[in-house]
Amino acid sequence: MPINNKDRTHFEANTRRFWLRSTRRRPWWSLWKRYREYGVEYRERCERGLPMTEVLVYQSGLRAMEREIQGETKQLEQLRERAEAKRKEVVEAKQETAAIEKLKEKRCGITKRLWKKSEEGFIEELSVQAA
């Protein structure tokens, strides 16, 4: 069955409309909402009768949305994995910093005790010499 000009222009208009909808960046939940709305619209139009060209447009649009949702989901998972890796790095860095601070405090305490002992020894030596 040949496609007449009316079907062709309607087909091109639907294709352009879908393309304009799909090129905008939206959050992933908006993609799901748009996918559901497009599916409902497709089923409603199928019930009323839909030329085969439009059926193909809707089906390819739905597949394109599914691929877009899969891509966004995969990207979201990758970002979550990166965030988890960064969180682990921060936790490790905090633990290392805490360990270094403890060592510094311990070293400072040892130094203060040694200094105090040497002062006490010096004072004792002076008192022995003065006596």
Identify the notable features of this structure and list them briefly.
131 residues; rod-shaped; 3 helices; mainly alpha
3D architecture notes:
The protein is an all-alpha fold. 91% of the residues lie in helices and 0% in strands. The chain has helices spanning 5-23, 28-48, 52-130. Helix 1 (5-23) runs parallel beside helix 3 and helix 2 packs antiparallel against helix 3.
How would you classify the quaternary structure?
single chain
Query: Which sheet architecture does the biggest sheet show?
Result: none
Radius of gyration, whole Å: 37 Å
Number of DSSP-assigned strands? 0
The amount of beta strand, in percent, is under 5%
The secondary structure category is mainly alpha
Order of helices and strands: HHH
Low-pLDDT regions: none
- What fraction, in percent, of the residue positions are helical? over 70%
Q: What's the shape? A: rod-shaped
Summarize the structure in short.
By secondary structure, this protein is mainly alpha-helical. It has three helices and no strands. α1 packs parallel to α3 and α2 packs antiparallel against α3.
Describe the SSE topology.
Elements: H1 5-23, H2 28-48, H3 52-130
